[in-house]
Every structure is written in C-alpha cells, then in structure tokens.
C-alpha cells in the first residue's frame, strides 16, 4: 500500500486514529504528522455553531489545492473518517458549499459534494454558487461589493436545521451569506462543519505581569 499523499510505499500504517477519530488511512507517518488539529475557539455571526478540524497549514494547503485545483479526486478519502458523525444525521440537512459551474466544468466534479459521497454522508445540494471568483483574493472592501455569492436552488425544501460543509474558512463571508439565504428560505438553526482554517500565531507571549512603565514596544 502507498501513502495517499507522497506515494511512498508504506511499510507500516500509522494509526491515523491519532488525528482522525480512530480510523486508519493510508498515510505515511511523515505526512500524517503534518496535519494539525484546529484548537482555537471560533464563532461566526449568523451561524449557530462552527466546527473546524485542522489548521490550514502548508500540508492542508497542498492537499486542498491538489484536490480542488488539479482534480486529484482520490484525496477525498483522506477526510472520510471526519464525516462519520454526520452519517447518521437524519434531522438536519447536510448542505455542501458549491463551487461555481465554470470550476466544476474545469475540474470535472463538485469538490465538497464529492467529499460527502466518498464519506457516504447523505446530503442536500440546496445551494448554487453565483459568484465566479476567488473571494480570498479580494480586499475586505471588494468583498463587501460582492452582494451575491450563493443562492438557494429553486424548488427545494429547506429544513429547520442545516449544517453547511466547506473545506476552508478564511473570512467566513461565503458561509455567512449561505446561512443568510437559507434563513430567508426558512432555516432556523445553521451550523458549519469545515475542514480547516488558517491560524494566526502571535510572535511572542506577553507576560501579563510585565511592568508597563518599562515597556518599550
Ligand atoms: Zn506520505
């Protein structure tokens, strides 16, 4: 068996349970060790509860870019165990954040829907992506000019509880707008389940007992 990421032949499978809920995945120890759990608390106005699994570090960036940018579809297997808790969800709608149809034509699949299919999670594709661009490349002011990112698909039934699924949160603008349009369509509670988020680290820890009068910065 080979490591799903670096293609190295595996002599011994690392217990991926360390990172991913007691399941084993074909990853070498070196690749597995580069996934860092997201440990900060995070909330987003307009959403009830946001779960984030990993730091969006270099490894996650490479994996997501290979998966979504180049269509390396087999990488979806990596995240299958994360979705286990959602497999038995029957009351809430599991709602993937969609990619724009132009992107889907280019790579050949809907990335978040495919993650859910591979994980065998039943989902409701309630949303359609309207904005065909990369929000993360825009400034805050420019993002505010984009008034429609997603819309609710016509003729669908929106349940009271929706769980949005996405790969990366940066500013949260897409999730917030998705939550807003679902609320307009009747949803009462909206959570999000996201693979990763960039972590801001401070360069130093400020000692709270420091003598402020002597502080020079
Ligand atoms: Zn590897």
User: Number of helical segments?
Assistant: 6
| Strand element count | 6
Binned strand content: 15-25%
Helix residue percentage? 10-25%
Structural class: alpha/beta
The biggest sheet, with number of strands, parallel, antiparallel or mixed sense and barrel status, is: 4 strands, parallel
CATH C-level label: Alpha Beta
Radius of gyration: 19 Å
Bound molecules: zinc ion
What string, H for helix and E for strand, traces the elements in order?
A: HEHEHHEHEEHE
CATH topology: Rossmann fold
Separation of the first and last Cα atoms: 54 Å
- Looking across the biggest beta sheet, what order are the strands in? 1-6-5-2
CATH architecture: 3-Layer(aba) Sandwich
Number of domains: 1
What is the mean predicted local confidence, pLDDT?
85
Overall geometry: globular
**What low-confidence regions span 5 or more consecutive residues with pLDDT below 50?**
204-217
Family: Belongs to the ComF/GntX family.
InterPro entries: ComF/GntX_DNA_util-trans, PRTase-like, PRTase_dom
Protein name: ComF family protein
Organism: Savagea faecisuis
Which keywords apply here?
217 residues; alpha/beta; Rossmann fold; two-stranded antiparallel sheet; 6 helices; globular; binds zinc ion
């Amino acid at each position: 068996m080979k490591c799903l990421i670096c293609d190295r032949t595996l002599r011994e499978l690392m217990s991926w349970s360390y990172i991913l809920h007691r399941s084993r995945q074909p990853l070498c120890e070196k690749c597995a060790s580069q996934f860092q759990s997201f440990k900060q608390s995070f909330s987003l106005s307009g959403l009830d509860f946001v779960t984030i699994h990993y730091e969006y570090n270099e490894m996650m960036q490479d994996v997501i870019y290979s998966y979504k940018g180049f269509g390396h579809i087999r990488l979806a297997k990596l995240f299958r165990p994360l979705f286990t808790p959602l497999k038995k969800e029957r009351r809430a709608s599991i709602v993937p954040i969609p990619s724009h149809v132009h992107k889907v034509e280019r790579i050949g699949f809907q990335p978040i829907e495919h993650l859910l299919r591979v994980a065998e999670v039943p989902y409701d594709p309630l949303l359609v992506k309207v904005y065909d661009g990369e929000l993360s490349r825009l400034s805050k002011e420019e993002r505010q000019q984009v008034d429609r990112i997603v819309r609710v698909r016509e003729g669908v039934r929106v349940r009271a509880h929706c769980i949005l699924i996405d790969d990366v949160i940066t500013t949260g603008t897409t999730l917030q707008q998705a939550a807003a349009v679902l609320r307009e369509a009747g949803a009462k509670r909206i959570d999000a389940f996201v693979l990763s988020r960039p972590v801001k680290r401070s360069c130093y820890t400020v000692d709270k007992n420091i003598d402020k009068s002597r502080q020079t910065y």
